[in-house]
Write a structure and sequence with these properties.
Rossmann fold, 12 helices, N-(1-d-carboxylethyl)-l-norvaline Dehydrogenase, domain 2, binds nicotinamide-adenine-dinucleotide, eight-stranded mixed beta sheet
């Protein structure tokens, strides 16, 4: 039975996952090497709880209980000691994650499941430095984790059925909708999402239609809540470019990034975060 979840990394994703864990009844510890990030995570979790109560989505007692369930720990070893499930959400750097998992493997109890929130790195490669490869898995949340329903559970070569089942149960207890995907580049979500995004950019390059009309084709014709170019602006063109390069190197040239994407990234047009991508974001 999973009771305690330790989240490693308290950035954009880590703090959201920690909120979700606490509000779902898990004892939650958030760890980060950066004290300022831990402080910001605490403020963000408090704010989500407060807004939840204001909007009537969370009752005041549950919010108080959730607040009491979260601890913020700067010491890695004590953050890991009592964990039943570790969810890693540190930057997308293979060696950094591998190093952290090697330590988690050392400090955690026998039964503890180690999970990564990676959006692209192979789960089997992340598990290279750990002994417990049967209890190693991908648990890919989406941004922001408390609003996005999907959890992509990624199984490595050695992940056991029991680990998949226990991880699925956690996702369900968090009121998320899990899918199970075999470890392969881009998993299911990034592989399909990036495919549509890249084709939309090629269509823009070819002058097929304006960015607005390409997006409308998917929004109104296919019921996508947001068109692929607007979504690329939100994700960040640089982030999309690096995923496309990784997919091209692993799955083949069909993922080769379009020239327009490379040009926009080199011009610093990264989407919402820089104010300019396929759209201008000055007033939003
Ligand atoms: N941002 C997204 O939309 C998104 C969506 C899904 C998955 N992801 C994945 O989630 C992971 C985290 O992404 P993010 O956007 O939250 O990153 P982020 O940069 O916002 O946060 C990373 C945090 O990890 C901390 N950190 C760095 N080294 C550490 C260490 N050794 N030990 C503990 N903490 C450490 C940093 O201080 C920072 O607070 C990445 O693997 C990313 O690919 C991101």
């Amino acid at each position: 039975m999973i009771r305690q979840i330790t989240v490693l990394g308290s950035g954009t994703m880590g703090r959201g996952i920690a909120y979700l864990a606490a509000i779902s009844g898990f004892d939650t510890i958030v760890h980060d090497v950066d004290g300022a990030s831990l402080d910001a995570a605490k403020a963000s979790i408090e704010s989500l709880l407060r807004k939840g109560v204001e909007n009537g989505k969370v009752d005041a007692v549950s919010a108080d209980e959730a607040r009491d369930r979260v601890e913020y720990g700067a010491d890695l070893e004590s953050a890991l000691r009592g964990a039943d499930l570790v969810i890693e959400a540190v930057p997308e750097v293979l060696e950094l994650k591998q190093e952290l998992f090697a330590q988690a493997d050392l400090f955690c109890g026998e039964e503890t499941i180690l999970a990564s929130n990676t959006s692209s790195i192979s789960i089997s490669r992340l598990a290279e430095n750990v002994e417990r490869r049967d209890r190693f898995i991908g648990m890919h949340f989406f941004n922001p984790p408390h609003r996005m329903k999907l959890v992509e559970i990624v199984t490595g070569h050695r992940t056991s059925e029991d680990t998949v089942e226990r991880t699925r149960e956690v996702a369900l207890r968090m009121s998320r909708e899990p899918i199970v995907v075999r470890d392969s580049p881009g998993f299911a979500s990034s592989r399909l999402g990036v495919t549509i995004g890249l084709e939309a950019i090629r269509m823009l390059e070819d002058g097929v239609a304006s960015a607005e009309d390409i997006d409308r084709a998917m929004e109104l014709g296919y019921n996508h809540p947001m068109g692929p170019l607007r979504l690329t602006d939100l994700v960040g063109l640089d982030v999309r470019l690096s995923i496309a390069e990784y997919l091209a190197s692993t799955l083949g040239p069909r993922f080769e990034p379009p020239a327009l994407l490379r040009a926009m990234v080199s011009e610093g047009k990264l989407g919402r975060k820089t104010g300019q991508g396929f759209y201008r974001w000055d007033n939003e």
